[in-house]
Design goal:
Elements: H1 2-15, E1 28-36, E2 39-46, E3 53-54, E4 66-74, E5 81-101, E6 104-126, H2 130-133, E7 138-157, E8 160-182, E9 185-196, E10 199-213, E11 216-231, E12 234-250
Antiparallel strand pairs: 1-4, 1-12, 2-3, 2-12, 4-5, 5-6, 6-7, 7-8, 8-9, 9-10, 10-11, 11-12
């Protein structure tokens, strides 16, 4: 329920911008909510263990249906534009495996769970004069993104339960591109990523968007998120990828 409220708030923030501001040159607001089908791949381990556990084979996680939302505000002149995105994920399964997790030994019928809540805040600028030089058909954005990750993984067997968690803010480089060959139809791509020492995180996204009527649009695409991070009680080396669909308003 909390995730649904967060996504609705993101969209309402975009609609709450005063109408006179929408008339500013190069000012634009776009908000969308949608559904994502992430499929997990890779492994994790706790700081207390030596062996990585596979998300599919050991935890039995598979593709889930999750909500996502975003808000993008394009500002005029020298003011940086802003991007907000919420992508919470939660996996719950039952598996029959034997392994060590969090220093405890589990064997038999196990309940496994993991949450990975991702929240992005980015500031960016459009490449100067590119949009006007291409008759408003092509644009490239570049800036910084800050991704907050709240991760938690739990293994339970009866009264025995072990939970490890991690919360971290990851700075990333942000690149975005939009190509509109005809009115009411566009292709978009976004990339966020950073590699620092032994840690890396990145996100790739492609979207096809079509205007339905007035400010309402529909879109669909594919998203790929990868992590190789050793922080706190969890060591993560996994990816989440899958298609998504969304609808929203653009002014």
């Amino acid at each position: 329920m909390l995730r649904i409220r967060l996504l609705i708030i993101c969209l309402l923030l975009g609609l709450a911008v005063p109408l006179p501001a929408n008339g500013l040159p190069m000012f634009g607001v776009e908000g969308a909510v949608g559904v994502w089908w992430p499929s997990p791949s890779g492994s994790l381990r706790t700081a207390s263990d030596d062996v990585f556990l596979d998300l599919r084979d050991d935890f039995s996680f598979s593709r889930e249906t999750e909500l996502q939302g975003r808000l993008k505000v394009n500002m005029p002149l020298l003011i940086p534009s802003a991007y907000l995105m919420a992508s919470p994920m939660k996996f719950n399964e039952r598996t029959t495996r034997s392994f060590q997790y969090g220093g405890e030994t589990f064997s038999g019928a196990l309940d496994t769970a993991m949450k990975l809540n991702q929240y992005d805040f980015g500031l960016f600028y459009a490449v100067p004069f590119l949009r006007s030089a291409t008759l408003n058909r092509f644009n490239v954005d570049a800036g910084l993104n800050f991704r907050y990750i709240d991760a938690e993984s739990t293994v339970s067997q009866g009264a025995l339960s072990e939970t490890e968690s991690m919360s971290i803010v990851i700075p990333q480089v942000y690149l975005g591109a939009q190509f509109q060959p005809v009115d009411r139809f566009s292709f978009e791509a976004e990339a966020r990523g950073l590699t620092y020492r032994s840690d890396s995180s990145y996100s790739l996204l492609g979207r096809v968007k079509a205007t339905a009527f007035g400010p309402v649009f529909v879109s669909g695409g594919y998203r790929y998120d990868g992590y190789d991070i050793d922080k706190g009680g969890l060591l993560m080396d996994f990816t989440f990828s899958g298609p998504f669909v969304e609808t929203g308003l653009s002014f």
